[in-house]
């Protein structure tokens, strides 16, 4: 079925001018960018977005990184978009990511791993609503 998922191009990628290169990988995988905005995340936005990781040892580092520079928040649409996006992103740890994936191509480390993608359709809806109104999403 056609789904929507939420995507973030992270500060390590915007810093290296990789927004277009990453979008090209997404589009080649059949994902359509139906909403997109470049923002600087506030501490509050990052802490809320990553709330499920609050107790993890890397939480502070994660919030600091995600607020360290511009990010590009996106809504992607396509057939089985959640799984299709996760496949094309590759494993969280770039050392484990398959050839041709965004993280294999571009990620610097498990923390500075260039992209985020929703892990379920339910979380995608929650994450999309955190950054976009329906009027901003043009499918
Ligand atoms: P993301 O998909 O954005 O969701 C949670 C993020 O936590 C994950 O990508 C990683 O970038 C980050 N993360 C996971 N494990 C670690 C770790 N061991 N050290 C630092 N960051 C991590």
Topology readout:
Layout: E1 2-9, H1 11-15, H2 19-28, E2 32-39, H3 43-49, H4 59-66, E3 71-79, H5 81-89, H6 102-106, E4 115-117, H7 121-131
Antiparallel strand pairs: 1-3, 1-4, 2-3
The structure holds adenosine-3',5'-cyclic-monophosphate.
The site of adenosine-3',5'-cyclic-monophosphate (CMP) has 9 residues, from helix 4.
Helix-strand category: alpha+beta
Mean pLDDT equals 98
Q: Determine the strand fraction and express it as a percent band.
A: 15-25%
The low-pLDDT segments are none
Task: Report the radius of gyration as a whole number of Å.
Answer: 14 Å
Q: How would the global form be characterised?
A: globular
Oligomer: single chain
> Largest sheet at a glance?
4 strands, antiparallel
SS elements, strand count: 4
Structural summary, described in words:
It is found in: Cytoplasm. It catalyses: a ribonucleoside 5'-diphosphate + ATP = a ribonucleoside 5'-triphosphate + ADP; a 2'-deoxyribonucleoside 5'-diphosphate + ATP = a 2'-deoxyribonucleoside 5'-triphosphate + ADP. Belongs to the NDK family. GO terms for molecular function: ATP binding; metal ion binding; nucleoside diphosphate kinase activity. This protein is of the alpha+beta class and about 140 residues long. About 40% of the residues lie in helices and about 20% in strands. It is built from seven helices and four strands, in the order E-H-H-E-H-H-E-H-H-E-H. Strands 2-3-1-4 form a four-stranded antiparallel beta sheet. The longest helix has 11 residues, at about 120-130. The structure holds adenosine-3',5'-cyclic-monophosphate. Adenosine-3',5'-cyclic-monophosphate binds near residues 53, 62, 92, 110 and 113.
